[in-house]
Amino acid sequence: MAADLIAPSILSADFAKLGEEVDSVLAAGADIVHFDVMDNHYVPNLTIGPLVCEALRKHGVTAPIDVHLMVKPVDRIVPDFAKAGATYITFHPEASEHIDRTLQLIRNEGCKAGLVFNPATPLSVLDYVLDKCDMILLMSVNPGFGGQSFIPSALDKLRQVRKLIDASGLDIRLEVDGGVKADNIAQIKAAGADTFVSGSGIFGYGKAGDPNRYDSIIAEMRRALAGAGG
User: Fold this and answer.
1) How crowded is residue 42: how many other Cβ atoms within 10 Å of its Cβ?
2) Residues 159-215: pLDDT tens digits?
3) Is 177 a residue of the active site?
4) Counting CB atoms within 10 angstroms of each CB, which of 12, 68, 129, 173 has the fewest?
């Protein structure tokens, strides 16, 4: 299986110090910067857009940026995030009229493409577009808000998708987002995930103002992952 990647979600960061926050989690050993993009239409919240992605790139962030679009419609915003410096762009099948076309659009814009499945969304669309996915993201909470608890049924879904990916032989990352913390990350890896989004589980840790406060929690996650099966 692919190397484990930790992806802090900046939804839980201090936005008044966003550049510093991202620098700190990357210095502490995180791998990917995760963007939760909400439109107050597809989900009941309003967060960030391409300008924030562009600002982090101008700030000097070179790590991959993983943009999770919780917006409808999708296609209009894809080129903007690609231009702003996104590495991955993932979206929900329910938010696109033409899923195959949107996946191709993302790749044509120079980004890696992926699909996101809510807890109750069936996986059947993957029968037709698995070969166009570079990432599959399973939500382990219902999207729209940070700080929610992990939904255990996501583990069975992870096992199903891991089997699909392994059988395909394709290079596809399997990401999980929602309620991921140091005390359950090993269980999540054992179910098949290799990319772990954590918002409050990382940014909510330690004492504000301490530049090293993320070192210990990310190290704890790494130890848990190293001891997990998969």
Assistant:
1) 20
2) 999 999 999 999 999 999 999 999 999 999 999 999 999 999 999 886 666 767 899
3) yes
4) 129
